[in-house]
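User: For my dataset I need records formatted as: sequence, then structure tokens, nothing else. Please produce one.
Assistant:
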Amino acid sequence: MRWVPFALVAALGVLLQTTLMRLAIIGDAFPDLLVALLVTFGLGVRPAEGFVVGAALGLGRDLFSVEPLGMSTAVFAALGWLVARERPATLADHFVVRAVMGFLCSAAASLASLLALGAQGTELDWRFVASRLGLSALATALLTAILGGLIWQRPRWFGLRRRSEFADV
């Protein structure tokens, strides 16, 4: 993986997530650009690199969120490793795979966030929980499919590889 292009995209992603993505709100839900980047990059790297990708994106989120410091880093690192490890053999660059992985990862990240809020004593309304787990995950799935399509048009620029290229690894 080429780390400089990833670092630039990750920094831009954190900046956009903390500023402009808050404007794309639907009720209490909004798409998660960092999860979309996690899935997009996680599908084209080895599991160890997926772990690093997730940890880097999670740390970027931790620095600008009200959640406990380190929670997003841990959740994103685990998700990055799982996405890189469990990607489908030949369909890693297919939009449906990206959308499904984006939905699942967004739901997992939202669930971890909601559990942290609940552990802090915040009373959670069921509509808020449903919108975070449902609408946010659906919006993130759509964003992942679109963003992944843009990045996977030139995977070599980012140092990403299709599954068949891992045969020698």
